[in-house]
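Q: What structure does this chain adopt?
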Amino acid sequence: MSLEKMKSSMRIRRKQTKVIIIILLICAVLNIAARCSQTFSLFYMKKLFPVFTEGFAWLTSKLPFSLGEVLIIIAVIGVPLSIAAFVLLMIIKRKNKEAKRSIRRVYGYVYAWIFVYIILTETLNCFILYQTPSFAEMYGYPQEKYTAGQLEQLADYLIAETNAVSKRVERDAEGKFRLTADLDETAKNAMTKLGDDYPQLRGYYATPKAVKNSFFMSQQYLMGIYFPFTMEANYNDEMYSLNLPDTICHELAHTKGFIREDEANFIGFLACHVSGNDDYRYSGYLRALKYVISMCEENSSEETVARLYNSLADEVRTDWNGNVDYWQEVQESDRGIIKSETVAEVSDKAMEASLKINGVEDGKKSYGRMVDLLLDWYFVMEAENT
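A:
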């Protein structure tokens, strides 16, 4: 290599290194600012986050497949292959020091840029959003302390609504729920409608996408996944179909900056509630009811819990059991390359760690805090109707 080419190559490397360092420093500053100031994180969520995320979501929506799933497959296959290729090249070029240095530099910069992309997208589409005020604080929910009696009152309301709508949906020959609603447009319309009351939910919605390898999601007990690297709302289309409407609305809530799971659960419920579609309403009510009954099991008497279960319509019982049966079949299935039990255990630990890193101290238990929002919503609604 000529001296001039060497100098040019060094200048390019120095520029790349500077850009990488600058981006990482910006990410560090943004994360520190968000952790120190909810005012900053809220400003970011309302003013900056929608600007670039909606454009990016518009682009990925044009693809007929999940770009996030493709990137995961590339990573799973590509990383081991690239490491193997690196080792092989080092062996082949072991006597050529200059070639070995060039190979190391190329690999170093490729992996450095991948690392930068991960940190940047996680910062912009995830980390900062965990530091915003809660949904209840943003929209003036009372955040009261409720009694076991009030929790049971909410359960009775949800049972009544769930029972009623369960008799209006389509069913197959076995009496199980049969989905007839259009998933994509109904979900986006329901979320857009919520924007009338909750301004952060306004704007463009990415098209929800089914994951091709949904069985692998089922092995992890995952019904949906928000992929911050591509701003996609992905869902598992193998699971019991009654889960689909609520799950899709939940994932779309993440794309609007509501990154906490309990809040996305609640927004998913609200979207189903206002959708005007029985499939969606049934999906949202039953998911909410499961969380509320689970909370009643911790706070109410055995007699009360038994009464709640006995109040469920036969149609609701059929779908409740159909969902349980599906997840049991996944755990007993031999379809996967890796045992479902192993996949579920690893996934559970990874999710728990991810939540706690982002300041969610109670980890996956935070999903159940949706009940607090449901109680606020229900008693505000009751007060307005009296």
